[in-house]
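Quick one: Gag-pol polyprotein from Trifolium medium, structure tokens please.
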Amino acid sequence: MLHQTLQHLTTSRVLELLHMDLMGPMQVESLGGK
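--- reply ---
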């Protein structure tokens, strides 16, 4: 059960970092374009 919890936390963290990585450049470009 502990392993499943750790795996879930790791997956959530990876998705969070991936989302930030994808959204970050887009936000910078939109700010720079204005």
